[in-house]
Amino acid sequence: MGEIKLSIAEGFGPDGTWCEVGDDLHTISIGDAEIRLHPLADTVGWHADYFNAGWHSSKYESVPPEYRPIVAAYVDRVADLFDGLLQEADLREAAAEGGPRAVDALVRRQVHLADQRHEALDALLRSLNASDGALPAWARTLLHDEAEHLNMTREWLGSAAVAYHHGSAGHRPTTIFGGICFEFSTGTVDLVSASV
């Protein structure tokens, strides 16, 4: 507890660097986590937690301040929707511990997490779309990166399931060529270039 108090005092003290994100205050860091203070509704005080991103990291530094609350809501929504890249060994381990039902449960969980991430990305795209459907360059890049990561997760999931049930299907590609994209309710995100 003392370490958290010290981090808050350093981050939000006179020498600290912080920014406003909607009603919240965030320390500014180049890492993958920041301390966030959220005002409590019915009392004078703040709730402190960690925000799983950094506004000065390469991924989020180009997000304009007025769009940070929208992006922060997305980051919060997807924070627990990634368990790593599933591999055949993970399915074999599940089978050894719990048989076919454990394998089925693991795959279904991964599919559910990927579907939830797709829905969150779809909501982010809807929130960032202008009335004419145009997106600024920073948003196209962010959406592309997120869609690319989701695609990689789904590709590993499919490869693991195929390898577990039917054996290796050859080496997993390291580069994707072609017009591969994700379809969303208000547009598509191309996985090859940062165009939306």
Query: Please, how many helices?
Result: 4
**Biggest β-sheet description:** 4 strands, antiparallel
Radius of gyration from CA coordinates? 20 Å
**Helicity range of the residues?**
40-55%
**Structural class category:** alpha+beta
How many beta-strand elements? 6
Quick description:
This protein has helices spanning 2-12, 68-78, 88-128, 137-166, and strands at 18-21, 24-27, 34-39, 46-51, 181-184, 187-190. The protein is an alpha+beta fold and 196 residues long.
Describe what this molecule looks like in 3D.
With 196 residues, the protein is an alpha+beta fold. It is built from 4 helices and 6 strands, in the order H-E-E-E-E-H-H-H-E-E. It has helices at 2-12, 68-78, 88-128, 137-166, and strands at 18-21, 24-27, 34-39, 46-51, 181-184, 187-190. The strands form 2 sheets. It has a 4-stranded antiparallel beta sheet, sandwiched between helices. The chain has a two-stranded antiparallel sheet with strand order 5-6. Helix 2 (68-78) runs antiparallel to helix 3 (88-128) and helix 3 packs antiparallel against helix 4. The chain starts with a helix and ends in a 6-residue tail after the last strand.
